[in-house]
Design a protein that fits this description.
By secondary structure, the chain is α+β, with helices and mostly antiparallel strands. Helix content is 34%, strand content 26%. The protein folds into 2 domains: 313 residues, no CATH class; 65 residues, no CATH class. The longest helix is centred in the middle third of the chain and has 20 residues.
Amino acid sequence: MNKSLSKRISKAAVGPAQRFRNLTLFPLLAKDIKEPEYICMVDAITDEKSVHITEVSSGGSVPNIRVTNESDKKILILDGEELKGAKQNRVANTTILLDANSTTIIPVSCTEQGRWRSTSEKFSHSKTVMAPKVRKKKLMSVSHSLKSSPEPSYASDQGEVWDEIAVLHCKVGTQSPTGAMHDAHESRRDDLSEYKGRFETVDKQFGMLAFIDGKPAGADMLSLGRAFKKNFDILLESYAMEALSSSKPDSETLPEREEAEKFLENLPALEESEFESVGLGRDCRYEGPESVGAALMVDDTPVHAAFFTRDGSRDRRRPSGNGQQASQESPGFFELIQNASGGQSPRATSIYDDGKLDHLRQQILRELDNEIRHPGKSADELARLQAIYRQMISGERAPRSNQGENS
C-alpha cells in the first residue's frame, strides 16, 4: 500500500462507537491534510452554480457523462455518488478530483434501468450514495477492467449493477417503475431519517468505519474533516440503507473498538495497483483475501479512500470476454420456481410496464441461485425472495409503496 495512505490509516484514532439497531459507526480521527483544497460535489452543484453536468451529447452515452467546472476551485466527486435527471440516473464509477476551470468526461454506471428519456437538461444531485454492497461490486468490476484492459478503463459491469439494485429493492421491500436505486431510498425515507437522527460527526473526524449486524461493512476516509462532514449524511444514508436490507434490521449489535482497530490494521497489507486517474492524481486499487478498496492519491495525499469487506464466494465472478465481470447464471433455480408456479411464463406487470420483467426475473434468479450454491442469507430471507418472484410470475400486482419522484 502507498506509504502516505498506510501512514494515514495507522495514525488514525478510533473514536467511541455510535450505535442504532444493527448499525454501528466508529469515527476515525486525525488532523486534516491541507493540500489539495477542494469543495464537495454536493456543495458545488447546489450552492456554487458553477458546475454543469450533462449527457455527453444529445443522444447520450450510458457509461459516460460530461462535467464542466467553471469555478476556480477543485471539485471532488465520490465513488458511488449519484446524479439524477437527464436521460437516466447515474453514479460515478470512481472518485474523481476535477481541476478548476475544466471539462471532464467521467465514467458512470446507470442506476435506473427502465428509463432512457430526458427529464431535465442537466443532472442534479440526488443526495444519495450507493449502498456499500452494490458499491463494492461496482468497485471490484471497475478494478478488473483497469487491470485487464490494454488502456485504463473505468468501465463497470453494468448488468451486475442493475442486478444488485434489483436485489436491494427486494431486500428492503420497495419497487420502482424504472428500477431506480433512488426510489428505494425515497420509499424508505422515514426509516433512513430515523437512522440518520442517531449519528453525528465529532471533532477531528475524517472518516468512519461501519459495522452492520456486528460485522465490518466498509470504511470511508477523506483528507479534509470539513469535506467528510459535508458528505457525512449521504455516506451515512448509504450504510443505513444496507442496514435496512439485513434480515435482522431491528437487532442491536455491539462490536467493540478492538474489532474496528483490527480491520484497519489489516488494510496496509492489501495488494496495490496504480492507474492514471480520470481527473487529477492517481487511482489506486486494493485487493486481499478479506477486503477490497480504492483510493484517490493527489501529490501523495489520500484525498478519498474506501474499503469494503469481501463476502466470500459471493464476490467471486468469472471474467467475460470484454474484460469486465460476468454474473453467474444457472437454470437450476429457474426451473425449480417454474415448477412451483405451475410452469407459467412470466409476463409484464407493474414492475416494468414496457415488457422488461423478463430481465428483472433473471436478475432475481441469479441472486437466489447464487445463494443456494453458496448460502449466505437466512431461510426466511430466501423464502421472502421466492415469494416475490412467484408473485411476479403470476402477474399479481404487489402492494405499492410510497415512492419518490425521479426528477
